[in-house]
Structure formats: structure tokens, C-alpha cells
Design a protein that fits this description.
The protein has 295 residues and is mainly β. Helix content is 13%, strand content 38%. The protein is built from 4 helices and 23 strands. The strands form 5 sheets. Strands 5-6-7-8-9-12-13-23-19-20 form a 10-stranded antiparallel β-sheet, with helices on one face. The radius of gyration is 23 Å and the shape is globular. The two termini are 32 Å apart. The mean pLDDT is 90.
């Protein structure tokens, strides 16, 4: 039970933010997501702080999108004294270089699509993809996908999978499949024993909607800028979905409360090498954001 309302930059009193933080720890600190070997160095003139410099608004939209495919980093250089290795290395340039075939000039006035075509000529995207018009991006490792038009996000690794749906619909990962009838929600399944998802004997599934204080008021309908933070009690938005986990043996599923204690067993169906079960963020009349799967 919260003793104070949820505040903007604190996660201790926000159960969804707390679970999200732990999910990010699994994906990136535990190392579930493979580090991309693709790097986009951006050469930036050391004197870029001049008031009339055209890169005042850096980083531009295209470098930000490239960060969905590989690693993006800024390299401060003196364009009049570039070393041979700096010149020969494929890179994106905001340093005012001219005539370097290894550089893609982001200040040449061409469209983002044209610049992306030139970038593809110089960099190996691996399994990566970037479609600016469709709003689709896939990381060079093939593990992370964002579909802006479909309003979905997917992370698929050997030990964990995360799916985000921003509206009703169905989304399939390698192991985890979700079908939801309602609003935005995030789903994460992870192996708790360090094995691959298909081989794990103990899994954790998180089902995250959103929380907010009672009486919170926003400046606009989309709920971006807070006018009044509200007060207790903290409210959890109810969400329901149908879950399927492929692989592994016969499984039992247990709903967990916010402390990790079992609320009770969930009615699960084991058929065709997969287990299917419903999730409800108000399981048995109390907040439920996580499920334990035992095989």
C-alpha cells in the first residue's frame, strides 16, 4: 500500500515502473540483449558551439533513428587536420568535409531517405532494417524491432522476450504470443534459471499496464504534461490478455501479488507443446503484474 502518491521521477512507489526497471536490468545488465557490432560514428567539428553553426539542433532525426539499428556516437574532430584513419573510416559527417567518399554529409541538404541510401552503401546493417516512411526499425542483431505504424515493439533474446502493444491486437514473438482486447500494455517473459526460454523450468511473466494517482490532471487529452499530480490512492489500470508460451513441457501457472507471493494457480491449457492462459491485472480482486510458470 502506497504511503505517498506516485511522483514524476521516483519509481519506489510505482509498481509498474519498478517492474519495468527490473525488466531493463534483465535485458541489458544481465546481457540478454546482444551488443550491436554496428557503429555509426558522427564527426562533429570541435568548434560546433558557434552561434551561427547549422548543427545547433544536433542530434538530428536521422542519427536518432539509426540508434534503433546500431550504436551511434559523436566524435569531435578538426576537419582541417583529420588523420588518415579518420578519413578512411566510414562515418557520418557534420564537420563540413568535402569530397570524402567514406563520409555521408548530413548537412548536404538532401532528404533523410537519400542520406540513408548513402549510409547503407558504407555500413553493413547485418539483420538490421530501417524504413523511415513506414516507421519500422530492426536492430543489427535482429533482436529488437519497432513498428511505429503497427504501434508495437518487440525484443526477442534466447533468455527473454518483451512485447509491447499500444492498442488491441495480436503480436507473436519466438516463444511468447499475446492477444489483447484493450489499451497499451507491456509483456515480458524471462527465464529465472539462466536457461533458454524453451528449456527453462521456471519462468517469470510480467504484464504491465499503467498506474496514476487519483485525481491527476493533464494539460491535454493524450496525458503528456501534468497539471495536477493528484493524490492517494494510486490506481492501476486494468488490463486483460491471452498468453501463449511455446516450447517446454507441461506447465503450471501461478499469479503473484506485488511482493512476489502466489495469489493462486491460474487455469492453464497445455496443448501441442505450448501453454496458454489468461492474464488479468486485477487477478482475484487484487493488483497482479506477474506470473510464475513452473515446468
Amino acid at each position: 500500500v502506497n504511503e505517498a502518491p506516485v511522483s514524476t521521477f521516483a519509481i519506489a512507489g510505482d509498481p509498474v515502473a519498478t517492474f519495468s526497471f527490473r525488466a531493463m536490468s534483465l535485458l541489458f545488465l544481465r546481457g540478454d540483449v546482444e551488443s550491436s557490432g554496428l557503429c555509426f560514428p558522427i564527426y562533429l567539428n570541435r568548434e560546433f558551439r558557434a552561434a551561427d553553426d547549422p548543427v545547433t539542433d544536433y542530434p538530428f532525426p536521422l542519427p536518432r533513428r539509426l540508434g534503433l539499428v546500431g550504436r551511434v556516437g559523436t566524435v569531435l574532430v578538426d576537419p582541417k587536420a583529420l588523420s588518415e584513419s579518420e578519413i578512411s573510416r566510414p562515418h557520418l559527417s557534420l564537420a563540413g568535409e568535402a569530397g570524402n567518399p567514406n563520409a555521408v554529409d548530413l548537412l548536404d541538404g538532401s532528404s533523410r531517405e537519400a542520406q540513408l541510401r548513402e549510409i547503407r552503401k558504407r555500413f553493413d546493417f547485418g539483420k538490421g532494417e530501417l524504413d523511415l516512411r513506414r516507421g519500422f526499425a530492426r536492430s543489427s542483431t535482429g533482436e529488437i524491432e519497432m513498428d511505429a505504424r503497427g504501434e508495437t515493439f518487440l525484443v526477442s533474446t534466447p533468455k527473454s522476450e518483451a512485447l509491447v502493444l499500444c492498442r488491441s491486437g495480436k503480436l507473436d514473438g519466438r516463444v511468447l504470443s499475446v492477444e489483447q482486447p484493450g489499451e497499451a500494455a507491456t509483456y515480458l517473459v524471462t527465464a529465472l534459471d539462466g536457461k533458454r526460454l524453451e528449456e527453462s523450468n521456471r519462468l517469470l511473466l510480467c504484464h504491465l499496464t499503467s498506474v496514476m494517482n487519483s485525481g491527476v490532471r493533464f494539460r491535454e487529452e493524450k496525458g503528456i504534461h501534468i497539471q495536477s499530480p493528484g493524490q492517494l490512492p494510486v490506481l492501476l489500470r486494468r488490463g486483460r490478455a491471452e498468453i501463449q508460451l511455446k516450447g517446454g513441457g507441461v506447465a503450471k501457472v501461478y499469479a503473484l501479488d506485488l511482493t512476489g507471493r502466489r495469489i493462486g494457480e491460474v487455469n492453464a491449457k497445455n496443448t501441442g507443446g505450448a501453454v496458454s492462459f489468461p492474464v488479468d491485472s486485477l487477478e482475484a480482486g487484487q493488483p497482479c503484474l506477474a506470473y510464475e510458470i513452473i515446468r
